[in-house]
Design brief:
The complex is a heterodimer.
Chain A lengths: L3 H5 L4 H15 L5 E4 L3 H10 L4 E2 L7 H7 L6 E2 L6 E7 L8 H8 E12 L7 H4 L8 H11 L1 E9 L2 H15 L3 H13 L2 E2 L9 E8 L2
Parallel strand pairs in A: 1-2, 1-4, 2-3, 4-5
Antiparallel strand pairs in A: 5-8, 6-7, 6-8
Chain B lengths: L3 H14 L1 E2 L2 E2 L21 H16 L2 H16 L23 H19 L4 H20 E2 L4 E2 L7 E2 L1 H18 L3 H15 L16 E3 L2 E3 L4 H5 L2 H11 L2 H16 L10 E2 L4 E2 L3 E2 L3 H15 L6 H9 L10 E2 L23 H13 L15 E7 L2 E7 L3 E6 L2 E7 L7 E2 L7
Antiparallel strand pairs in B: 1-2, 3-4, 5-6, 6-7, 8-9, 10-11, 12-13, 13-14, 14-15, 15-16
Chain lengths: 214, 432
């Protein structure tokens, strides 16, 4: 059962970034938007940001209860047949690859998939350690997008090597009894948290926008 | 620089531009984290200063519209309360999460002050505001955050912890609740033991940081960081305890805390961000939040006759008011990492007025409006300023309709006021 304490729990910084990015992208879409998520955790994060979003099957169990906790009248399953303008696809699992063709068919031409997937440093995510699913990496999803006729238009990484280095420098400063340096390093980590350009897949999470070609 | 009544009128005008569905919105910049993309209603500590400020303005001017604005803010909280008693998006810099501390307690302080005023006026709305606050205090704080072993409130239901400034805000809420309900048990069982735990974290003379109150304790680990701003926020609760018990220890703790703060005021009337037993991180230096420091000085004056000259700090506050009506949050955000101020151009975050900081300035400035004086019409205008984003020159703009950041002719950040999320936020502005 999902209780109120769970609704107050905040995920790590990478996920906060990723879900905020998804919200900004999706709220700008004119047309139906849907989400495909592997578990309740990702569903909660989307619902608290976009209360009107509906979910593709398989919809995680417990989301209805989460919606009630968030004060929502209902949590909607996506229409079985209708088309949609955009999809939020969060942390696809190996078994979800088969969904891509279905998504492509139901996505309007020039519709978008907004993806959040683990990067090469996904093992740094505390939330990942609590889940047993076999997640696709961003590189694997990117390949799948290419094969299914999507063009990647935006991509950036979250929590890359520079941010991780700042983090460990801060840890070292703390152990050496220099908390003022530790704090400075912490903000260095936050400043370096978003990785664009070359090497962005070497990060804990990757955000990607892909457009369906005609 | 505006005179205080004009500054208050402009702040009120600006606050109206920051309305979104369900409350007051806009981006947040902070020492801990920024919240630049979520711009929807934040049911957090901004409501403490907004409600209290409008109540004071009503009492000073006798104009009913200010009471209605206080009630509108109260209605935001009532409508945004979740079934578990928390407020939606109450975490300020970490929004849109509920369960923010001290934010929900601060919102309760606002609601309970409003309820008290309305009850005195015979206005039946008071009951709804009181019920909302009591539901939050009971279901969230008393049931989930009270640590009976430590006899203080935790900052996280699952971790033994104490954050003095947050606990003090909660104590203010408990005193306000007790005043409405005549239930001294709230003070005896919860508030005073919590303050005892807070004062245990205060450094005593002859320590060089005497009067400073440590930022927090997690388990047995004391986090020996001393934030003058947060320490000033402990003072109102300590004074409430003194008024209630007439026990001098609370007054002594409040005075020592304020002496600590005053010793750190620099030649410009600004405070460092955080002081450590070894070292200091001076930047960013607060501007709008100084309203809380000035308020603490005012609260202490009747008991102590403080010799602190508020004038310079007050001038800093007024000088920070932008043509758009909001007051900047602080100076030198870009120096948060290297702690070397850059006087060429401000960081873009130095240009952003934030509702949850401006409420502190608003509450203080309103308290300076002379009794019986009505406000002039607000005079707010569009505003733009060159600034730096990650070392590159950009332009910050604000009008009644939009806040934006552009580089050359490209918009890299845009919030259309009234919307819950930014319309544009390029990756370089994704900065928490």
């Amino acid at each position: 059962m999902t209780n109120a304490v769970d609704l107050c729990r905040r995920p790590g910084l990478a996920y906060q970034h990723a879900f905020d990015w998804l919200a900004v992208q999706l709220q700008a879409i004119d047309g139906p938007i849907v989400a495909l998520v592997p578990s309740e955790f990702q569903g909660i994060e989307l619902l608290r940001r976009l209360p009107d979003i509906s979910f593709l099957n398989p919809m995680p169990t417990g989301l209805g209860e989460v919606g009630a906790g968030l004060g929502l009248d209902r949590v909607a399953a996506a229409n079985e047949r209708g088309k949609f303008a955009a999809v939020a696809w969060v942390e696809p699992r190996q078994e979800d690859v088969s969904c891509l063709e279905q998504i492509r068919q139901r996505l309007l031409v020039n519709g978008h998939i907004f993806l959040v997937a683990g990067g090469q440093l996904a093992s740094f995510l505390a939330e990942r350690r609590q889940q047993e699913a076999l997640f696709l990496t961003s590189a694997e999803v990117k390949n799948a997008f290419k094969q299914a006729g999507f063009t990647v238009t935006t991509q950036f990484g979250l929590h890359g090597p520079r941010a991780i280095l700042w983090h460990y420098l801060g840890e070292a400063a703390g152990r050496l009894g220099q908390p003022h340096w530790q704090d400075r390093c912490h903000y260095g980590m936050r400043r370096a948290f978003v990785k664009t350009g070359f090497g962005q897949e070497m990060s804990a999470l990757t955000c990607m926008a892909a457009e369906r070609r005609a | 620089m505006n005179e205080i009544p004009q500054a208050v009128a402009n702040l009120d005008g600006w606050l109206d531009t920051m309305r979104v569905p369900g409350g007051y919105g806009g981006p947040v910049v902070h020492w801990w984290q920024n919240c630049l993309q979520y711009t929807g209603s934040g049911l957090d500590w901004r409501y403490e200063g907004i409600i209290s400020g409008y109540l004071t303005l009503w009492q000073r001017t006798g104009q009913p519209q200010w009471l209605e604005k206080a009630c509108r803010a109260g209605d935001d909280l009532v409508a945004g309360q979740l079934p578990a008693g928390n407020y939606r998006a109450s975490s300020f810099e970490q929004n849109p999460y509920p369960g923010g501390t001290p934010h929900e307690a601060a919102a309760d302080v606002g609601l309970l002050h409003l309820a008290k005023v309305l009850r005195t006026e015979g206005d039946e709305r008071w009951q709804c505001y009181q019920e909302t606050a009591v539901r939050n205090l009971t279901q969230f704080y008393l049931q989930r955050m009270w640590d009976p072993a430590a006899r203080s409130f935790r900052d996280d239901p699952n971790t033994p912890s104490l954050v003095p400034n947050k606990a003090c805000t909660l104590v203010e809420a408990l005193f306000a609740w007790a005043a409405l309900s005549d239930d001294v048990e709230l003070i005896e069982t919860y508030a005073l033991p919590t303050l005892t735990a807070v004062v245990a974290l205060q450094l005593k003379a002859p320590h060089p940081l005497a009067g400073g109150i440590a930022q927090n304790r997690i388990g047995r680990n004391l986090i020996a960081k001393y934030f003058p701003y947060y320490i000033a926020r402990c003072i109102p609760a300590l004074l409430l305890a003194y008024k209630y018990t007439e026990d001098e220890q609370w007054l002594a703790a409040a005075i020592a805390a304020f002496h600590f703060v005053v010793r750190l005021v620099d030649e410009n009337g600004l405070l460092p961000q955080v002081v450590y037993p070894k070292g200091i991180n001076r930047y960013p230096q607060w501007v709008a939040p100084l309203g809380d420091v000035l308020r603490a000085a005012d609260l202490l004056t009747p008991y102590y006759g403080l010799t602190f000259d508020k004038k310079q700090m007050e001038q800093v506050l007024l000088a920070g008011q932008l043509p758009s009506g909001g007051i900047v949050t602080g100076h030198h955000f870009a120096s948060q990492v290297n702690q070397k101020p850059n006087d060429q151009l401000p960081d873009f975050r130095d240009c952003i007025p934030v509702v949850g900081w401006n409420d502190k300035a608003f509450r203080y400035l309103v308290s300076c409006v002379p009794q019986g004086q009505t406000l002039p019409a607000s005079e707010i205008t569009d505003f733009q300023k060159p600034c730096f984003l990650r070392g590159q020159e950009v332009v910050w703009r604000e009008s009644n309709e939009v806040m934006s950041l552009s580089r050359d002719k490209n918009t890299i950040y845009r919030w259309d006021k009234g919307q819950n999320w930014t319309a544009v936020a390029e990756p370089e502005v994704l900065w928490k």
